[in-house]
Amino acid sequence: MSTENQSEIYNRAKSFQYAFDGWWFVLRTQHNAWIHAVITVAVVVVGLWLRLPLRDWAVLILTFMAVWMAEFMNTAIEAVVDMTMPDVHPLAKVAKDVAAAAVLVGALGAVLVGLLLLGPPLWQRLFGA
Asked: Fewer CB under 10 Å: which end of the chain, C or N?
């Protein structure tokens, strides 16, 4: 293997390491990320118990992804704003509030998706009606 190929493989591996470092940072520092994590695991467990069809899993995975991506972007935006605007500034507040609103919209949408996909089979399983 050429040195150039080894360098490319190393660079790709480092890219993954940076991404996992970011994920770990979010889990370590963002309280809401733990809420997302617990809910993600709970929905996966319930979905497995209900034996959801593959199409429902695809929608759930996209929903998880949207919420997690919003949380990651919110954390990144907060970090950049804090770095560039150590003093309170009205536009810094707007940036942080809007980023937080994106997470809220994603989370509320995820709740609706969860109710639509898990609600009927869960009701059937629990109450047989």
From this structure: C
Point out the catalytic residue in the list 4, 8, 71, 78: 71
Question: In which element (H, E) is residue 2 found?
Answer: none
| pTM summary value | 0.87
129 residues of the chain, pLDDT tens digit each: 777 777 888 888 899 999 999 999 999 999 999 999 999 999 999 999 999 999 999 999 999 999 999 999 999 999 999 999 888 899 999 999 999 999 999 999 999 999 999 999 999 999 986
The separation between CA 13 and the C-alpha centre of its own chain, rounded to angstroms, equals: 22
CA–CA dist 68, 58 (Å, integer): 15
Q: Is 8 a catalytic residue?
A: no
Per DSSP, 83 falls in state H
